[in-house]
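REVIEWER CHECKLIST
Item 1: Sequence provided? yes
Item 2: Single chain? yes
Item 3: Sequence as submitted:
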Amino acid sequence: MNKTTELVFSKAGIPLGIPIPTPIDVQYYIVESVIGLMAIFGNLLVLYVILFRRGLRKGHISNLYIASLAVADMAVGLLVCPFALLNSVGLPRDYTLCISMQCILLWAAAASIYSCVVVSVDRFIAVTKPHMYQSVMTRGKAQALIATSWGLAFIIGFTPAFGWNLGRPEEERCFFIEIVDFTYLAFFFFFVIVPSSIVVVVLYVIIFKAIRAQLRQASGGAAANKKTEPKGADDKSKDRAGGKRWKREVQIAKVLFLIVVFFYICWYPLFLCDSIMAFSSIFFPLPFINCLVYLSHANSAINPFLYGIASQEFRNEYKAVFLKFYCCRKRESLEVQSSDVQTKETNSQPKTNEEASDAV
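Item 4: Structure as written out by the authors:
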């Protein structure tokens, strides 16, 4: 008689007794590694141009919020993607280290979400109350808002470590669905992602309504000015400066709106599926969940490209950095070539009588 071994499953539906680490999913490792590397180097470039390039270092306060987002995105590449790769094979075996890894992932996600909210509040004030913006939104207040958003994200992200989890798994291994309670993920979706997205949508609706009203007012004012007495040179220069400043605020609002919308497009599907699995017997296939994980992590890798596509300032700074790197490399290669040529010319010169006699 043939003896058959029946598989025993954990509460999360993963077989017990399987060897840890489990076999590597090559496709998953390749995709996550590529996303992680792109997130690291892309966001390093963003932070470099903001912190060290004169055009952006002394630029707009909104660059601080972009830097905050870049730090969160780089954390995805440095920490979240490697943790996801370890998690996919059931590592680490230590429970404390395992749950800390999951919490760091959630912390990075929450930090990005709250950074998007802070960005939206900043644009709301800049566009709807442009005359008050510089006094209301100082550099110190912006830094305090960023610190508060990261602190709140830490509290939300590390909540599972303080008890809201599934407890120690039946075996010493680390799989996300055996550690993190799906009801917590539902809470994360309905009380973190959804409310923040509603706030962002409401703020940007008001922002774009204000932009439309301002454009109508500007066109009406231009028509009225043609019929009235011409303004003096000082009045014209003030109007021109104010118009340029407001146009810049609007352009920044459009750039950040694109970034915020793309963020929610990337993260909504994953947490929505987690919420469905939390309150129903529906379980989505692993390849489908992996695709949603790719999408959420890819957000961190694509953001640096979005900054360059949507913002002329970032595009110019990117070009300057690449040209500087390229020119330096080219100069080094030319110096090496010239030194080689000089060496060859020196060696090929005929020896003098004295040198010849010395050689003899």
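Item 5: Key structural point noted by reviewer: The chain is about 80% helix and 0% strand.
Item 6: Recommendation: ____
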